[in-house]
Amino acid sequence: MAITDLREHNISELHAMLLRGDMSARELVGASLERIRRYDGTVGAFITVDDAGAIAAAERADEAIAAARSGATSGAAAGAAASAGGGAGADGLPILTGIPVALKDNICTEGIATTAGSKILTGFVPPYSATVAERLTAAGAVIVGKANMDEFAMGSTTESSAFHPTRNPYDTQRVPGGSSGGSVAAVAAGMVCAAVGTDTGGSVRQPSAFCGTVGLKPTYARVSRYGVVGFGSSLDCVGPIAGNVRDCATMLGVMAGHDPKDSTSSPEAVPDYVAAVERGADGVRGVKIGVPREFFADGLDGGVRAAIERTIARLEEAGAEIVEVSIPNVEHSLAVYYLVATAEASSNLARYDGVRYGFRAVGAGDVGSAIAASRTEGFGPEVQRRILLGSHALSAGNYTAYFDKAMRVRTLIRRDIEAVLAECDCFVSPTAPTTALRIGELVEDPLTMYLQDIYTIVANLVGVPALSVPCGLHGGLPVGFQVFGPMFGETMLFRVAAAVEQASAGEMRRPELEVM
Questions:
Q1: 317 band by pLDDT with thresholds 50, 70 and 90
Q2: What SS3 class is residue 175?
Q3: Residues 148, 45: contact at Cβ < 8 Å?
Q4: Domains annotated on the chain, with CATH
Q5: Tell me, what's the pLDDT at 76?
Q6: Of 366, 368, 338, which Cα lies nearest the Cα of 353?
Q7: pLDDT, averaged across the chain
Q8: Which of 242, 267, 307, 415 is least crowded, fewest Cβ atoms below 10 Å from its Cβ?
Q9: Is 179 part of the annotated catalytic residue set?
């Protein structure tokens, strides 16, 4: 069976097709690589494509599938399935066997260059893989390449990449969002079945809203950050991106779980996320959903507002109880976030000095001058801007006035969210205030660009999970509906998202791409 667009089937359907012999993993991965070759010149989703590694992995997957079909699945394969959070079929074959996926290029991959979208990491090939990459490959996934991103995950449009901008598959004159724009665009364009991104202030959810994919920021500590290039250590989360809610749940089941290599990783048990999705529209019956009045104030595009309000009404029709709630201190969240995030970024990025690895400026004289020149030439303007802001906030004369105060207000925001979630099972909002922006629209206006995160950053400040699911189109572009839940409450998010997906299915369409 020939497949051209990898969004035609969900992962479970592809798993069954592979087992039946309708196609081979080599053919499926070949279809992924062919679609990348055909359309990535238009979209620019990838920085690195690992053709040889992907083909070799696909051939290993075919061997595992043949063994499973003959009833002779090896103990190693069964063990991999068990370690993948229960993500295996009755045959014992890991659920992602032979499935092509992409990783954001700030996730370390042994033997494959990892750039974080920056010139300063030129030539860096990690000697090890991130835990999330290891778990995906243990579950049989085929990593076809590393996706483009805003430099060091700092941006909302994927235009600050040191390599090239990524374009939105729905309209190539528009941005895909950021910073995980390459990962999201690869899924939206049908180049891969799923992808992994990182979310420090909305970097999985906002591009998912712009490109019509499902993107999840898990609970802080739900997914290991070991081997992920750091931006804001108290904010960073690794999350799955997929074309539908079920695949997003499948990916999280593989990625989640305790990791002794990450001291912040939680030992909380990993539930069956896919079971939550299978309840469909009935999954919201009796669920109490909060609607924060602060998230529907001025600044929200009228068409986006209409799509969100229409979706809330549909959830109520499906049996959910809708209540208005308030998060009084959320008005301070943007200021708090850009103090905390930039302070943590200035600390994390201090290690990039042009001495130990990566880009090094030439002819700069003494060590101090060489370090200064390497950082000046190696970092792009947005990264430099945030390092300077963070260093300023952490300086001796400003720490108490800025950073310390921001952390105190962060606590107040956390208490507000806890109060809302004590009253409701979850709460909802738009994912972004607008649909996808035009390329270049905000390059010279960083303050307006930061406002793109206005609805997403609160989840990172507090640590709760949040998910964006498409709820329709406005002007031909996707609109994202965001669901927030309690700590380790991803099952509730998947229940609500599955109902939204089912209610909105007739309004969505896949993008049509042209070869540039």
A1: very high
A2: coil
A3: yes
A4: 11-287+489-507 (3.90.1300.10)
A5: 43
A6: 368
A7: 93
A8: 267
A9: yes
pLDDT digit string (tens) for 160-203? 999 999 999 999 999 999 999 999 999 999 999 999 999 999 99
Per residue, the 3-state secondary structure of 431-479, as one string, reads CCCCCCCECCCCCCCHHHHHHHHCCCHHHHHHCCCEEEEEEEEECCEEE
Active-site annotation holder among 24, 129, 160, 179:
179
CB 480 within 8 A of CB 205: yes
| Per-residue tokens: 169 | 């598959």
Q: Alpha carbon of 69 to those of 59, 73, 92, 139: distances in Å?
A: 15, 8, 10, 17
Which H or E element spans position 134? helix 131-138
Q: Which residue of the set 203, 333, 346, 504 is catalytic?
A: 203
Q: Pick from 503, 486, 505: which is nearest to 222 by CA?
A: 486
Instruction: Give the residue from 267, 251, 258 showing the smallest Cα distance to 494.
Output: 251
Structural contact between residues 102 and 191, judged by C-beta atoms closer than 8 angstroms: yes
The larger pLDDT score, comparing residue 22 to residue 81, is at 22
Sign of the C-alpha dihedral computed for residues 405, 411, 414 and 419 taken in this order: negative
Confidence of residue 516 (pLDDT cuts 50, 70, 90): low
pLDDT tens-place string over residues 345-371: 999 999 999 888 889 888 767 888 999
CA dist 208 and 247 (Å) reads 14
222-248 confidence digits (pLDDT tens): 999 999 999 999 999 999 999 999 999
Q: Does the active-site annotation cover 374?
A: no
What is the DSSP track for 1-57? ---S-TTSS-HHHHHHHHHHTSS-HHHHHHHHHHHHHHHHHHH--EEEE-HHHHHHH
Q: What is the C-alpha separation between 176 and 203, in angstroms, rounded? A: 11
Can you tell me the distance from the alpha carbon of 377 to that of 484, in angstroms, rounded to the nearest whole number? Answer: 40
pLDDT, tens digit (0-9, with 9 covering 90-100), for 447-459? 788 888 999 999 9
Rounded to two decimals, the pTM is 0.95
Residue 277: closest CA among 447, 494, 124: 494
Active-site option among 104, 118, 333, 429: 104
